[in-house]
Amino acid sequence: MKRIVILGSGESGAGAAVLAQQKGFDVFVSDMSEIKSQYKSLLNQHNILWEEKQHTEELILSADEIIKSPGIPDKAPIIKKIKTQGIHIISEIEFAGRYTDAKMICITGSNGKTTTTSLIYHILCRAGMNVGLAGNIGKSLALQVATEHHDVYVIELSSFQLDNMYDFKADIAVLMNITPDHLDRYDYKMQNYTDAKMRITQNQTPADAFIYWAEDPIICQEVQKHDSELHALRYAFTADTPLPGTMSQEQLSLRGRHNLLNSLAASAVATLAGVPQDIIIEGLSNFPGVEHRLEKAGFVGDIEFINDSKATNVDACWYALESMTKPTVLILGGLDKGNDYSQIYPLVRQKCIGLVLMGVDNKKLHDCFDHFGIPVADVSSMQVCLAECMKMARPGCCVLLSPCCASFDLFKNMEDRGEQFKNGVKKIASQG
Description:
Layout: E1 3-7, H1 11-22, E2 26-31, H2 37-45, E3 49-52, H3 57-60, E4 65-68, H4 77-85, E5 88-90, H5 92-97, E6 103-108, H6 113-126, E7 131-135, H7 141-147, E8 152-156, H8 159-163, E9 172-175, H9 190-198, E10 209-213, H10 217-225, E11 233-237, H11 257-272, H12 277-286, E12 295-300, E13 303-307, H13 314-323, E14 328-332, H14 345-351, E15 352-358, H15 363-369, E16 376-379, H16 382-392, E17 398-401, H17 414-431
Parallel strand pairs: 1-2, 1-4, 2-3, 4-5, 6-8, 6-9, 7-8, 9-10, 10-11, 13-17, 14-15, 14-17, 15-16
Antiparallel strand pairs: 12-13
C-alpha cells in the first residue's frame, strides 16, 4: 500500500486526505498549526490519522508522495528535508485531477481571478450545467471528486497551486493578467512568478482553449516567447472586444474597467462551453458579485464604505481606486509582499483626501506617501482604523479598504479583515 502524507489540513488538505483514503492509500495528515474543528471532525469521521502543532519527521519522510498545502513555502524546513529525500511533492488539485474525467475550466491571474471564476460558475449554473466550484474558493476539488460527481469544474488557481501541478490539464485555461504579487515567495524575481502563472497552459492540446487578456504586456511577451509550446486554440480579448449580442457595459452587474475584462473572459468561457447567448447575457447582468471585492459595506450618514479586503496587491488597489467616483479615504497596509506603490501615486493624488495605514510596520508606506500633503494616520486595529477614517471623512465621500497587502500581521486572513471592517461599519452606523 502506497503512503501519502498531506501537509496542511485546511480545506485542500482535508479534502485530499479523504480522497486518498478512498483510493486505498495509507494516509497521514500533519499540520504545524492547530487544525480547525471542522477538519478534525472530517478526518476523524474517515478514521484518518493526523497530528497538529508539529511535523513528526519519521512519519512524514516515509511517504511515497507528499500533498502540500499551497500556503507552505518551499523554504520551510520540512519541505527542504522532503526534497533532500527525493519525495515527490504535488498539490491537491494535481492529485484530484487523477481521479476525474470532468472538464476543467481553470482561471488564474494576479487580479480578477476570484470574480471571473465566480462569474463563470454563476453563468454555467444558470445554464443548468452540472458544475462544481473549486480551488481557492468553494469546497476542495479533491473532496468533491471523492463525494460528488460533476461534469465540469470551475477552478480558481493561485501561483502556489500551479507550482506543484505537473500532469494536470485545463480544458479551458484563462489568464487574466500578470502583475507583481507574492514576490517574497519567488525570490523577489518577477520572472519566477510569471513562470508559475504560465503553468496554467501546460499539457494543453489543440483540442483545448487558452483565453487571455491581449493588452497585458507580460502575457503578450510570454505568449510570443512560448509560441511553439502553446498548443491550445488561443482566444485573446481586449477592452474593445464586444459583449455578447447587443449587450452594453451599462447592463453589466459589475462596474469598472477591470470588471469589464472579467465579464469578457467569462463570456468567452461560457460561449466555448456551449451556453446560449441569452443565458450569458442574463448571467452577466444579474451576478451578485464577490464578497470582500469592492463590496458595499454600508453608509454612515452619507459617507459610503467599500470593503475591498481582497485587494492584497498594488494592482488590485489600482483597479479599486480607478473605479472610485467620490473623494476617498483609503485604508492601506498589512504584510508587504515586495510592493511597488508608485503605480498608485497618480490615483492617490487625484482621488484621496486621507490615508489610514493599518499594520504592524508602516514605515515603507510612510516613506511612499507622507510627502503627498494629505492627512495620514497610523493604526493597529480595525476599531481605531474606522475611528480615524471618520475623522478624515467628509460628507459625500467614500472610505475604501483596499490594503495592497496581506492581512496576517493583524488578522487571521483577508476574510477576517473584511468582516471586521463590515461589522465595524454596522456598529458605527447603529450608534449614529
